[in-house]
Specification:
The chain is of the alpha/beta class. It folds into 3 domains: 2-174 and 325-352, Glutamyl-tRNA reductase, N-terminal domain (Beta Polymerase, domain 2, 2-Layer Sandwich), CATH 3.30.460.30; 178-320, Rossmann fold; 360-411. The protein contains 17 helices and 10 strands. The strands form 2 sheets. It has a 6-stranded parallel β-sheet, with helices on one face. Strand 6 (221-226), helix 10 (229-238) and strand 7 form a beta-alpha-beta unit. The two termini are 37 Å apart. The relative contact order is 0.09.
Length: 432
């Protein structure tokens, strides 16, 4: 079985590339099905194909498992097909994507999954949100038929490892979240958030986290803009705020001092012209904007405006690293736990490789048993002594069972015979 993780993240690819390979949440199932079809055609036709896709603001990763030989040629074919799938699916030149991809086979793929779920590979060291995102990715992959025995087992162990790491180490202690970082950055522009009007665009988990942090600063007003007004109103009610429709932004944007956006839109929803109009209406009073979406919600050209302070998810990276040194001991503990669990899982993978052989042995043994049983029944039917029947049954089973090993030993020569001679006593637990 070949296991593989291929992807890009905040350390290997710029935001401008990550947003090109991001999968919209409502397309994950479709993409998983497409990946399985791709592997079935280009890697190992007719074999079982497993796939799962994790796509967040900081990473896009494809996990795959295929019944391929564990040799260099099979691995190279698997890596090449997976990388080409990501480029092909998003309509990107392969040469543009390949330098930014990491390709992690076998135990490296498992180790990576464990580290990601535990928050060790995040921009925010120890952050917990990624675990929920990974669970959702696995749920969607399972619904799309992408999980077989191998990936299902890997992800179940991934979640168990993440729970163990978070419960036995302080990996999440002193962690500065993206939401908290957004508040810190806004305080560089506005001394008192309590005197500012704050707008949140979207109503997902990240916006909910950001709204919680900003609400703690008691802003003058808090507004949620969302395509579905009802969802926006539900979130706004938690913070004594109000909700507006996304379509109202052109008329309302100038009213806000702080804007935080994170939607699932595949295209920008705030363009340069809209912000220019808002700045003019505000008489050049500054606007602090945070775009946490991937792909981005706010056109990149907006950052050029003199009175706009625009930060992307990557710009928050330096802020969220605060306190990292305080968690290094916890990181070492977490890595030790993960390494042990990786070895355990790979042992399970290795044992899975002999399952077909074990099944063949069972089938062969069952065939022998049925033959001798039928022979014994015929002897009983003609009135043979039961003791003689049992004796013949036991001798027949023993002879058939030993025939294969004895024949192999007789036919072997030189080193092969020596290896068999050393192995057979272990298999049959005989004394030498």
């Amino acid at each position: 079985m070949q296991l593989l993780a291929v992807g890009v993240n905040h350390t290997t690819a710029p935001l401008s590339l990550r947003e090109k390979v991001a999968f919209p949440a409502d397309q994950i199932g479709q993409a998983v099905a497409a990946a399985r079809a791709w592997f079935g055609k280009s890697v190992a036709p007719g074999s079982v194909q497993e796939a799962a896709i994790l796509s967040t603001c900081n990473r896009t990763e494809l996990y795959a498992a295929n019944l391929l030989p564990l040799d260099a040629r099979g691995l190279d074919a698997h890596i090449d097909a997976t990388a080409h799938f990501l480029a092909n699916y998003h309509g990107l030149p392969y040469a543009e994507l390949r330098p930014h991809l990491y390709t992690l086979p076998q135990s490296d793929a498992v180790r990576h999954a464990f580290r990601v779920a535990s928050g060790l590979d995040s921009m925010v060291l120890g952050e917990a949100q990624i675990l929920g995102q990974m669970k959702e990715a696995v749920r969607q992959a399972e619904a799309a038929g992408g999980l077989g025995t191998c990936l299902h087992q890997m992800f179940q162990r991934t979640f168990a490892v993440a729970k163990e790491v978070r419960s036995t180490t302080e990996i999440g202690a002193h962690s500065v979240s993206m939401a908290a970082a957004a508040v810190r950055l806004s305080q560089r522009i506005f001394e008192k958030i309590s005197e500012q009007h704050v707008l949140f665009i979207g109503a997902g988990e990240m916006i909910e986290l950001c709204a919680t942090h900003f609400a703690a600063q008691n802003p003058k007003s808090l507004t949620i803009a969302n395509r579905t007004l009802e969802r926006g109103e539900q979130l706004a009610a938690r913070f004594n705020g109000k909700a507006i429709r996304l379509a109202e932004l052109p008329h309302q944007l100038a009213s806000f001092d702080i804007v935080v956006s994170c939607t699932a839109s595949t295209l920008p929803i705030i363009g340069l012209g809209l912000v220019e109009s808002a700045i003019k209406a505000r008489r050049h009073k500054p606007i602090f904007m945070v775009d946490l979406a991937v792909p981005r919600d706010i056109e990149v050209e907006v950052a050029r405006l003199d009175d706009v302070f625009l930060y992307t998810v990557d710009d928050l990276g330096a802020v969220v690293q605060t306190g990292t040194e305080n968690r290094q001991a916890a990181v070492a503990q977490a890595e030790a736990i993960i390494e042990t669990r990786v070895q355990n899982f790979m042992h399970w993978v290795d044992t899975r490789s002999v399952v077909p052989l074990i099944q063949d042995l069972h089938e062969s043994g069952e065939t022998m048993r049925l033959i001798e049983l039928e022979r014994a029944r015929k002897m009983l039917a003609r009135g043979d002594d039961i003791e003689a029947v049992l004796e013949a049954l036991s001798r027949g089973l023993t002879a058939k069972f030993l025939h294969g090993p004895q024949q192999a030993l007789h036919q072997a020569q030189g080193d092969e015979r020596a290896r068999l001679a050393a192995l057979l006593p272990q298999l049959f637990r005989t004394k030498r």
